Recover the amino acids of this structure.
């Protein structure tokens, strides 16, 4: 653990210091036990204790600050007990910066057959022998305590936003009941930061109840969950906007599962700080490069004889640019340039325009007027 | 290209030398290892890792087969870019073009005919003619290239073998006459398992205006015992001050055999195959007789030279693969982590392992050179081979 005792930060495992703002957007310094991070930041997903094919040096070189590890996969192999015995995931991977683990719940729901959620926890079919198993909030936290990441996630009752009806309300209240169980089970609050996850589907009333319930518990940080699962973009940004407006200023806001560069820019404009997504690593495996204009499908026949580099401008690090543009007081200009590059014809989607209006950022220079 | 043999130590035919080639600003000490590549890069190591994690200049020799480029990016495009060095951005590396590689371009002697050489590749069987070959090579702009050869395995008829020598010589002359740009060429020598044909081919090639010699037709079914005489039948007929390059001698013992016959350059798929299988080289680079007296042969398939990183005994092993190894992998990671990566089929496993294995094998070559320079090569070779036998014998008899 690295305590930055040279600076005047209090001895807590997480400290957020806002360095610059533009309306709701903020650039901050996030101090974690293993690393001093700059937000907004993007966390690549290192599912099984590695980002596919990249060495730790290469990751440091590209500016990676926090890696996300999947509790479900790591608990399966090599098991959280082994990781603990060998000194924690940082030591196991030899990763000198920060780590975050998820609760394991999402993978179970998305990967496994017969995943069922009850008050006790998530019941699922063991991938090893098919026997029914149960992941409780307590068990999830214990596994994450053993893995040792800087940030751990509460087990939440996650429901897809494409579902409607009473299930969403049930899930939201259960998430609040489970956060208390997670807090009680957490054995290392001085070394690991437990984030709560705001649920409530697309219903502003439910979201509001959930936010207030979590804020009452005074957690080190808050995630906005249950999004990035197929809901329409217009609903998506409104939920993010509502949550960021209600969450405390001095704690980080993590939008889970986001995502595309455009989503990251919009959510940052609305006041979010942290993101994770399999998108960049997954799309790379399929031969797709991310560039300011959008994507380049490198396997396409048209690319076969194209001898230009992937990105002549080489702006590889979106989150670094976001951070510095806010700190240096040129965030609106950055957003406009970003949108102009991505939408050279001015066809910025309506949901982005709506979101930027709420965020107080004038992007009229990037948009073609639809009405003549 | 400049090549010079270091004189002054008595090691039989084994010799050490210095090679200086175009792109690489550093002289390369021989005997040296050429790293096997697919399309110019090692299987699991990206260009930035190649330069940052492997020793320099030892790791600057890269061997590739032009046949790899018959699918995928067109040779014309590579030519437009400016050649392989430019395309891969490895300006200080040495690229050697050899038609055959032992992984995906295997000589298919049955289908080879008077027009061209046939190779078995993942894309099917390919017949390549000298003119096509020369054109392919010229678009890549390698530092040196080997002429097209008709390689045959050890068991073919005498007639077929003689034909292979005749063809190889004819194609050598074709390649030389088509070589308008005056690039560095190594003449190919074949001859199968016939001492006379090896002799004949070597003498003929020695008369041609080439910059070095590539010795083919090995690693195709001959036994190690018969190979020694065949190698010397070739090297004894070649001028001393020109480099000799052999393919198909991959294992450490085979390399030692080649060095003893006077070979300077080796390409080997040993590292590649070990890495694929999850095996890590551990052989001590300084061999002392008797060091391994109490080595236990484990069930995991490892021995005194390598360990199987997938074996469960390494699940909690927090030591590096080799304590004294300076490679990136040993300096940063443990056997436990590698065991996990292999277990979950993560790409990083092979990247880290290929770095380590390459490092180790380059170190082996370094030891060979040192032994030659101390005039102790024969002893080095004997110790190496004997301690291998001892370990296996000791392990087998301890049950």
């Amino acid at each position: 653990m690295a305590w930055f005792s040279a600076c005047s930060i209090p001895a807590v495992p997480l400290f957020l210091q806002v360095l610059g703002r533009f309306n709701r957007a903020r650039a901050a310094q996030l101090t974690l036990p293993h690393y001093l991070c700059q937000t907004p930041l993007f966390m690549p997903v290192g599912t099984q204790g590695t980002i596919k094919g990249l060495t730790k040096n290469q990751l440091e070189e590209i500016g990676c600050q926090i890696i996300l590890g999947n509790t479900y996969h790591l608990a399966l192999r090599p098991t959280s007990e082994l990781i603990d015995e060998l000194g924690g995931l940082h030591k196991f991977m030899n990763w000198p910066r920060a780590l975050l683990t998820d609760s394991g719940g999402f993978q179970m729901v998305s990967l496994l057959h017969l995943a069922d959620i009850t008050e006790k926890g998530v019941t699922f079919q063991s991938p090893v022998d098919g026997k029914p198993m149960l992941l409780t909030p307590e068990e999830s936290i214990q596994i994450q305590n053993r893995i040792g990441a800087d940030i751990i996630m509460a087990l939440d009752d996650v429901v897809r936003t494409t579902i409607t009806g009473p299930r969403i309300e049930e899930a939201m209240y259960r998430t609040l009941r489970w956060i208390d169980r997670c807090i009680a089970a957490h054995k290392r609050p001085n070394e690991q930061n437990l984030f709560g996850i705001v649920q409530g589907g697309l219903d502003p009333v439910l979201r509001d109840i959930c936010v207030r319930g979590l804020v009452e518990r005074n957690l080190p940080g808050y995630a906005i969950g249950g999004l990035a699962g197929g809901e329409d973009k217009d609903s998506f940004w409104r939920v993010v906007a509502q949550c960021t407006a209600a969450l405390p200023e001095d704690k980080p806001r993590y939008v889970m599962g986001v995502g595309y560069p455009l989503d990251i820019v919009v959510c940052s404009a609305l006041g979010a700080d942290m993101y994770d997504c399999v998108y960049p690593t997954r799309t790379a495996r399929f031969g797709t490069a991310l560039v300011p204009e959008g994507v380049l499908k490198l396997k396409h026949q048209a690319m076969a004889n194209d001898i230009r580099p992937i990105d002549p401008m080489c702006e590889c690090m979106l989150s670094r640019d976001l951070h510095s543009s806010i700190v240096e007081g040129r965030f609106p200009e950055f957003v406009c340039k970003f949108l102009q590059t991505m939408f050279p014809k001015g066809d910025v989607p309506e949901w982005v325009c709506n979101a930027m209006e709420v965020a107080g950022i004038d992007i009229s220079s990037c948009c073609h007027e639809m009405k003549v | 290209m400049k090549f010079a043999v270091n004189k002054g130590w008595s090691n039989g035919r084994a010799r050490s030398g210095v090679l200086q080639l175009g792109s690489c600003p550093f002289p390369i000490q021989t005997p040296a290892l050429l790293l096997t590549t697919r399309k110019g890069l090692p299987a699991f190591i990206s260009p930035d890792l190649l330069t940052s994690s492997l020793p320099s200049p030892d790791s600057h020799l890269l061997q590739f087969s032009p046949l790899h480029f018959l699918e995928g990016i067109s040779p014309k495009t590579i030519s437009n870019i400016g050649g392989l060095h430019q395309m891969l951005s490895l300006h200080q590396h040495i690229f050697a073009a050899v038609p055959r590689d032992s992984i995906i371009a295997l000589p298919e002697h049955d289908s080879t005919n008077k027009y061209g050489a046939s190779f078995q590749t993942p894309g099917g069987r390919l017949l390549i003619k000298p003119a096509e070959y020369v054109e392919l090579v010229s678009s890549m702009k390698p530092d040196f290239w080997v002429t097209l050869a008709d390689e045959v395995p050890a068991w073919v008829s005498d007639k077929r073998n003689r034909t292979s020598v005749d063809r190889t010589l004819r194609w050598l002359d074709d390649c030389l006459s088509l070589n308008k740009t005056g690039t560095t060429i190594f003449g190919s020598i074949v001859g199968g398992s016939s001492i006379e044909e090896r002799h004949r081919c070597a003498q003929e090639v020695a008369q041609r205006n080439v910059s070095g010699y590539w010795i083919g037709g090995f690693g195709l079914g001959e036994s190690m015992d018969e190979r020694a005489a065949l190698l010397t039948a070739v090297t004894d007929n070649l001028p001393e001050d020109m480099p000799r390059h052999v393919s198909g001698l991959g294992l450490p013992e085979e390399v030692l055999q080649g060095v003893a016959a006077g070979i300077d350059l080796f390409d080997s798929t040993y590292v590649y195959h070990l890495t694929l299988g999850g095996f890590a080289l551990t052989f001590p680079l300084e061999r002392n007789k008797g060091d391994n007296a109490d080595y236990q042969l484990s069930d995991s398939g490892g021995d005194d030279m390598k360990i199987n990183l997938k074996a469960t005994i390494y699940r909690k092993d927090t030591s590096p693969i080799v304590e004294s190894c300076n490679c990136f992998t040993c300096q940063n990671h443990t056997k436990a982590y590698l065991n996990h990566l292999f277990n979950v089929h993560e790409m990083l496993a092979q990247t880290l392992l290929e770095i380590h294995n390459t490092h180790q094998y380059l170190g082996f070559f370094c030891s060979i050179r040192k032994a030659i320079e101390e005039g102790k090569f024969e002893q080095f070779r004997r110790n190496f081979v004997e301690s291998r036998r001892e370990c296996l014998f000791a392990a087998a008899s301890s049950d």
